[in-house]
């Protein structure tokens, strides 16, 4: 499943190709994605408009168009976006095709169909159900550690579970939560409310560094084939603690331990993480 760094990498790749191009036509070959694709809505809101830029919220790509309509895409478990410059036969799972005014195409391919293709009318984003309840955006420059502290200070849930909760903060998957807590020196099973106000800026810094590093590693592999399950993201991230059970801690040499929290593996150093 693509994580936030992969989506950010894809966003950067699309930014090289899409802005300034107009969507001339949309072909829905198969509407049966996670939510049915509404072809009429896509046509009404998107066709004839030029792409201005591409934003991201959590793992949703937001393709901004003239007249302030938005194409929203989610890659689900197996979605891919292909930017096609020469005519190529459709493959079985090419579900939605966006024809651009320079004879190139953007194809949404998704074998497992957990992805999403939809359009948002001008002004409709605040009420859009799948965006409305999302938590903080970790790479948003305006995000304050103090706001996270205020929301967490009365919670007894383990901090790692809270970091993986998209209603609290988005995009911190299991590996990123493990790594961030290691760098911050915080035990993953510590109650979130026990983390002091002064520790939150450190933790937020660590989350941002881990995600930024993953984006950098994922940023070199994409060309005109923009995919979600290629080489990007954490596959190339050098992991400091995740998966290193029984190995020595990189900071202090103590033995890394593994526990299971809500069904997910947690790795930590019992000496460095308190
Ligand atoms: Zn250690």
- CATH fold naming of the largest domain: N-terminal domain of MutM-like DNA repair proteins
Please tell me the total number of domains: 2
Radius of gyration, whole Å: 20 Å
- Uncertain regions spanning at least 5 consecutive residues: 220-225, 227-234
**H and E order:** HEHEEEEEEEHHHHHEEE
Bound molecules: zinc ion
- How large is the count of helical segments? 7
Please, could you describe this protein's structure?
- The protein is an alpha+beta fold and 274 residues long.
- The protein folds into 2 domains: 129 residues, Alpha-Beta Barrel (N-terminal domain of MutM-like DNA repair proteins); 124 residues, Helicase, Ruva Protein, domain 3 (Orthogonal Bundle), CATH 1.10.8.50.
- Helices cover 25% and strands 21% of the residues.
- The protein contains 7 helices and 11 strands.
- The strands form 3 sheets. The protein has a 5-stranded antiparallel beta sheet, with helices on one face. The protein has a 4-stranded antiparallel beta sheet with strand order 2-3-4-8. A two-stranded antiparallel ribbon has the order 10-11.
- A hairpin with a 2-residue loop joins strand 2 and strand 3.
- Helix 1 crosses helix 7, helix 4 crosses helix 7 and helix 6 packs across helix 7.
- Zinc ion (ZN) binds next to loops.
Outline the secondary-structure elements.
Blueprint: H1 4-17, E1 23-28, H2 39-46, E2 51-57, E3 60-65, E4 70-74, E5 80-84, E6 94-100, E7 105-109, E8 116-120, H3 129-132, H4 145-152, H5 159-163, H6 174-184, H7 200-218, E9 225-226, E10 257-261, E11 264-268
Antiparallel strand pairs: 1-6, 2-3, 3-4, 4-8, 5-7, 5-9, 6-7, 10-11
The structure holds zinc ion.
Residues 249, 251-252, 254, 269, 271-272 line the site of zinc ion.
